[in-house]
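A student in our group prepared the protein record below, which I am reviewing. Thanks in advance; the entry in question is below.
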Amino acid sequence: MEFDYPSDLKYLDSHEYVRLDGEIATIGISAFAIDQLGDIVFLELPAVGDALEKGEKLGTIESVKAVEDLYSAVTGTVIERNESIVEAPEELAEDPYGEGWLLKVRIKDASDLDDAMSAEDYRQQVEGE
């Protein structure tokens, strides 16, 4: 199966992605990870106003196969949560890089992403798995 790896995103080896727009980071989960999980049935995400720490667990994603932790690529404050995806997590697979985002976070320091992978690096990692 062929997956998209948008080049404007940064990726974590735990399969989260970040789209940075100024000081706002949009966090989601890659199409590859969604495919590996299968049918997603539940998402647990932090509330608006919650603080996130880079590298810390921010929530969980549950599929018919497994429950996986989600991790934050950045330190900052949640300013928006995608309620439509929380209510209908099965729709995540339809547009993971567009309507399927999870959180928007006001970040403290863009250098948090200095050690994140480029699209090409991430593609090489997951296709080698």
The chain has a mean pLDDT of 95. Residues 119-127 form the longest helix (9 residues).
